[in-house]
Each structure stands twice: as C-alpha cells, then as structure tokens.
C-alpha cells in the first residue's frame, strides 16, 4: 500500500507524538462521559441538574427565565462555531502560504520542511473541524430543546407535562454533551499548535490539556459545589 507523500515525510517520533495526542483526546472524552461510579464528572452532574431544571420548568410561571437560558446556550454554541470557522479559514489560508511560515521556522531553528509544516497545520485543523461540527449539532439540538419546551403543557396536571419535560431534558443533555466535545477539541487544537515547536512540545501540551480538562471535571471547586445537593 502506497503511503501519502506528506506521511512519508513524518518522522517516527512525530508520528508517536501525534498518536499520543489523539489517544489522550479520546481517553479524556471517555473518562468524562463514562466516569467511574465512585468519582462522577461535572458533565454527568450537570445532566442531573438539567433534569431537575425541566421538572421545575413544568410548574414555573411565567417561563421567561427558561427561554432566556436556552437562548444563552444557543448563543454560546453559535459563538464557538463562528470562532472555529474563522480559525479554520485562517489555517487553510496559512497552508496556501506556507512559505512565510517556513521562513519563521528557519529563524526559530524549527522544522522547515513545507510538507511537514502543512501536515502539522492540518492536524490542528482536524481538531477545529471536529469542534465546529459538534458546536453546529449542539446549536441545533438546543433549538430542538426549545421547541420541545414550548410543547410542554402549562397545566402541571396534564399527563403530557412531565413526559415532554423529560424528553426536553434528554435533548438538552445530548446538546450539552456535543457542546462539551467541541470544547475538548478546542483544548486539543491549542495543544496541537505546540507540534510546530517539536514532537516533545506536542506531547507536553497534550498532557497539559488532559490534566486541565480532567481536573475541571473531577477535582474542581465547582464540582464540590454541585455535589452539595442538600442543605
């Protein structure tokens, strides 16, 4: 099987560093979305709060607050999606003009092979593209959630009220999961930029991104506050 030319230019240490970064990204997502029973993640805790939110939503009148929250969530996903599109556009433009980046690399005594530099930029763009797709889907799911919330009867005694609220909660949780996946991809896209400094820098940056993400999910002050469910 013929290996594409850019991959032929990639050294073994670079390939290992790339694999480590991708592996850490995948493992981080797995731990966050499927945490051990004895150590629940912030994302899972927030899922429970989203269900509680929809239970309170049924009896809340008026429901202006809930509409504002959903609107703010959609604005957040739209902002990140737009930022990813701009970053991807900049990266593609940089690939088309890699000569300038090669000159900078020569000044910094870094890798100067155009093909390798382009491959490293594409690696960053892959994370950004994944983030963009996740944010776009999260934005659409939050839109579905808002429509399902609007379909919840105003009368709490209506047999459909809590059923539809529960459906809205699950769609909300799915949207949040997609949003969080997009955020993780952004963290690792930033870490992937370190590859321009060398394979060692990529591994260090990927480990740092993993530590930051796992600390915020499993050892942050916000998590301790969320665990305080009862006075």
Brief sketch in words of this structure:
This protein has 231 residues and is mainly α.
Q: Which terms would index this structure?
A:
231 residues; mainly alpha; 0% strand; elongated
Q: Can you describe what's shown?
A:
The mean pLDDT is 88. The N and C termini lie far apart (64 Å). The chain has 231 residues and is mostly helical. 79% of the residues lie in helices and 0% in strands. The protein contains nine helices and no strands. The chain has helices at residues 5-8, 12-33, 42-59, 64-96, 98-107, 114-150, 161-192, 199-218, 221-227. 31% of the residues are buried. It has one domain (11-31, 42-224).
Describe how the helices and strands are arranged.
Layout: H1 5-8, H2 12-33, H3 42-59, H4 64-96, H5 98-107, H6 114-150, H7 161-192, H8 199-218, H9 221-227
Overall structural domain count: 1
What fraction of the residues are assigned to beta strands by DSSP?
under 5%
* CA(first)-CA(last) distance: 64 Å
**Could you describe the largest sheet, including whether it forms a barrel?**
none
Provide the succession of SSEs. Answer: HHHHHHHHH
Tally the helices.
9
Rounded average pLDDT: 88
* Rg calculated over all Cα atoms: 22 Å
The stretches of 5 or more residues where confidence is low (pLDDT under 50) are: none
**Helix- and strand-based class?**
mainly alpha
Helix content range of the residues, please?
over 70%
Number of strands: 0
- Shape assignment: elongated
